[in-house]
Amino acid sequence: MRYLPGQAQQLPGNRSALASYQASHFRFEVEGAVATLTLNRPERKNPLTFDSYAELRDLFRALAYADDVKAVVITGAGENFCSGGDVHDIIGPLTQLDMPGLLAFTRMTGDLVKAMRACPQPVISAVDGICAGAGAILALSSDLRLGTARSKTAFLFTRVGLAGCDMGACALLPRVIGQGRAAELLYTGRSMSGIEAERWGFFNSVSEPETLLADAQALAASLATGPTFAHGMTKKMLQQEWNMGVDEAIEAEAQAQAICMATNDFHRAYHAFVAKQRPVFEGD
């Protein structure tokens, strides 16, 4: 099967430099320390295919070893974010698969979410227009989300006869917008407007469509110039502490913070403060 592990394009290995990576199924560009990943099938509102799923999964796995990328922006071409799985390239073929094939596919899509959450870089989604199905999960799996008033986000799995529990939605969405609101969206599959999404906490902010990508890239650049080792630790703890009691979380944070206190960035910040200067972080 095309989407099983090892079938996507080979990516750079440990201590990689992804700035030169040429993606096959989307655009991938690195400027400074910020990577911008653009889903690029605007004529179809940027749907995902078996191969693009697999390449996205492998790319986010490789980001765990990328020295040159400190933050990632995901966006879509042509005034839409992502319409979800391609009806002809994914939905149709899925109706022909046996149970082992179906399970291989659903596990692969879940592995993309795991890879996004495991990579140390902050991931920012810039969402305009349609953000549906698996596209909504891409946005949900990001660390931060910027939207527009005209965006429409829909977890529409039940509208095609599937459960709302796709790719971790039942675990992730309630933590972002609350259990009751998440249940409504996952049961009904209705679209959430950009203004509603900001009010509910799904979007961190709403931009004008013409400035959305620039706003997301500016936010990513500001994070990329910060203490990136500490950002990676923050991301790891935000994920791990979901499964901890308060006492366990306090102990885990004590250990994480002690590690950060041993970094050169922490010492740089102290010396800059003493000298009344702005610290220049290097991520070590």
Furnish the topology, listing elements before pairings.
Blueprint: E1 27-31, E2 34-39, H1 50-63, E3 71-76, H2 87-94, H3 99-118, E4 123-127, E5 130-132, H4 134-141, E6 144-148, E7 152-154, H5 169-177, H6 179-188, E8 191-193, H7 194-200, E9 205-207, H8 212-224, H9 228-240, H10 246-261, H11 264-274
Q: What's the shape?
A: globular
- What is the arithmetic mean of pLDDT? 92
Percent of residues in beta strands: 5-15%
| Overall CATH architecture of the largest domain | Alpha-Beta Complex
How many independent structural domains?
Answer: 2
- The run of helices and strands is EEHEHHEEHEEHHEHEHHHH
Percent helix among the residues?
40-55%
Instruction: Give the low-confidence spans.
Output: 1-9
Kindly state the number of beta strands: 9
Content-based structural category:
alpha/beta
Return Rg in Å.
Answer: 19 Å
**Major sheet characteristics:** 6 strands, mixed
CATH class of the largest domain: Alpha Beta
Record the strand order, biggest sheet.
1-2-3-4-6-9
Distance between the termini: 41 Å
CATH superfamily of the largest domain: 2-enoyl-CoA Hydratase, Chain A, domain 1
How many separate helices? 11
Give me the CATH fold name of the largest domain.
2-enoyl-CoA Hydratase, Chain A, domain 1
Explain how this protein is built.
- The chain is of the alpha/beta class and 284 residues long.
- It folds into 2 domains: 18-224, 2-enoyl-CoA Hydratase, Chain A, domain 1 (Alpha-Beta Complex); 228-274.
- It is built from 11 helices and 9 strands.
- The strands form 2 sheets. Strands 1-2-3-4-6-9 form a 6-stranded mixed β-sheet, with helices on both faces. A 3-stranded mixed β-sheet has the order 5-7-8.
- Helix 1 packs parallel to helix 3, helix 5 packs across helix 6 and helix 9 runs antiparallel to helix 10 (246-261).
- The N and C termini lie far apart (41 Å).
